[in-house]
Amino acid sequence: MTPGKLRRRYTPRPGYWFVPRAFGWGATPATWQGWAATMALIAMAVPIAMLAENRGRVYLALLAPLILGFVWLAWTRTDGEWRWRWGFDD
Questions:
Q1: What is the pLDDT of residue 43?
Q2: Reported confidence tier of residue 33, pLDDT bands at 50, 70, 90
Q3: CA 60 to chain CA centroid, nearest Å
Q4: Three-state secondary structure call for residue 27
């Protein structure tokens, strides 16, 4: 994807939920499905983190598959490649 296309297209093609970030590495939600997946991650991670705070660090191990699953989902549903970017011209 050329930098000019990244700047002009804010919505991903059909079937994709995320777009590459303009600064840094990764993706950001661009559709309601991407935002729903992000909110679902937060809704599941907060109670697990609260349990870990009160009951021990073993519960933090439950966060690893949850976060890795979300990263995999975002990676497969991103309209473009994940690479380091520093602005729209990069």
A1: 96
A2: very high
A3: 20
A4: strand
Whole-number Å distance between alpha carbons of 29 and 20: 9
Tell me which DSSP letter residue 10 carries: -
Nearest to 22 by CA among 82, 87, 90: 87
**Residue 75 corresponds to which tokens in the numbers above?**
């990676």
Q: Please tell me what DSSP assigns to residue 71.
A: H
Hunting for tokens 């809704």 — which residue is that? 43
Token pair 């490649």 is found at 81
pLDDT at 79 over 60: yes
Whole-angstrom Cα distance, residue 61 to residue 25?
25
